[in-house]
Amino acid sequence: MSPKIVSFLFFVVVLIFSTIILQTNNKTKVNLSSQVSETPRKPVYTGAWVGGFWDNETKTLDIQPLKQFEATIDKKVAFANLFSEWEYLANPQLRDNLNTISANGWTPIISANPSFIDNCEDKGKPLYATIADGSCDTFLAKVGKNMKAYNRPLFLRFAWEMNLKNMYWSVEGTKSTPQDFIHAWQRFHTILKREGATNVVWILSFNTSSSETIPYADLYPGDEYVDWVAIDGYNWGTSQPWSGWTNFSGVFWNSYSELIAVSKKPVMLSEVNSSPTGGNKAAWFDDMLTEKIPDDYPQIEAIVFFNENKMTGESVDWRIEKSPEYVEAVRSGLTLPIYKSTYP
User: Fold this and answer.
1) Kind of pairing, strands 316-317 and 309-310?
2) How far apart are CA 264 and CA 154, in angstroms?
3) Cα–Cα distance between 187 and 133 in angstroms, integer?
4) Per the CB 3.0–4.6 Å rule, which of 13, 137, 178, 232 could disulfide with 271?
5) In degrees, to the nearest 5, what angle opens at C-alpha 300 toward C-alphas 61 and 45?
């Protein structure tokens, strides 16, 4: 065999082996890349507000409605939400109610909106400007001391839905500016931190956004002042003259996209439900729990069902227990392992 043929065959063998090695390396890289990109889905903590759980007029707590809700959906919830007036945040009696909540295995969420009160008087300025300028500091310090004394994680949903137009506490409703709100939030946060209330988890909770609401970015106080961001959203179905049936992503996708562009903090759906009128409420829940949240909304890490009969005032009975089909959809959806019953 001539030297030229030997050289040619050697070249072919080297080329074949090089190709095999390169393909093997590429496959390894692809496999490693796939392993890196397949990060596990973060857990989603469950929660609820249930009508009858808290009476804001008498300041009394009844755990049975929430216990019954858990039995109905066959799932313990991690968060128990209550709606409280602003002034009660400084009342030592609050801690007794919070201790009852924690004794039953729930982490409390307090939803509270500001108003003018003693130690936070109306002096002719808008409400949020008044908080921001220090006129409410004495009251805020009392709140800080009270919450520190609870000494467990306490989620505070301060001034929820402030982006709407006409709520008595909203930015526009109080004739405040977005900057007033930001400064008020920062001052409240700073005073609670100064008082040692580091157990407070701060939730910045908006309503779903629209052309009529203040953009989320205009109201964001900054990452160091926020622990969670949140959205309240409902499918109103055909219950209102202005509404129509809307699927889960129709309610939340635009707002979620706007919010995660502003903040990388974990997202909570701090109020969520569907009207029963105009469509299939059971299918709405099934889509939400088994498809959309697990697959399309990775930043959502908590959901809080709003479960109350609001026929008076809102013309909607939001209760899940009104139909076996609604119950089964929620119960079945919450069996997915991402949904957790204890925080953290």
Assistant:
1) antiparallel
2) 21
3) 9
4) 232
5) 40
Give the C-alpha separation, 233 to 66, whole Å: 21
Please check whether residue 116 is in contact with residue 127, taking contact to mean a CB–CB distance below 8 angstroms: yes
Average pLDDT (25-39) is 41
Query: Is 161 in a helix, a strand, or coil?
Result: coil
pLDDT in tens, 231-276: 999 999 999 999 999 999 999 999 999 999 999 999 999 999 999 9
Q: Which amino acid is at 215?
A: P
- Residues 225, 189: Cα–Cα separation, whole Å: 7
Phi and psi at residue 268, to the nearest 5°: -115, 135
Nearest C-alpha neighbor of 198 from the set 268, 147, 141: 147
Q: Which residue bears the tokens 């609604």?
A: 326
- Which distant-in-sequence residues (6+ apart) come within 8 Å of 51 by Cβ? 65, 307, 308, 309, 319
- Which amino acid would we find at residue 73? I
- Cβ–Cβ < 8 Å for 83, 89: no
Contacts 24+ apart (CB under 8 A), 279-283: 279/235, 279/237, 279/245, 281/237, 281/323, 281/325, 281/326, 281/329, 282/323, 282/325, 282/326, 282/328, 282/329, 283/329
pLDDT digits (tens, 9 = 90+) for 63-91: 999 999 999 999 999 999 999 999 999 99
3-state secondary structure of 276: coil
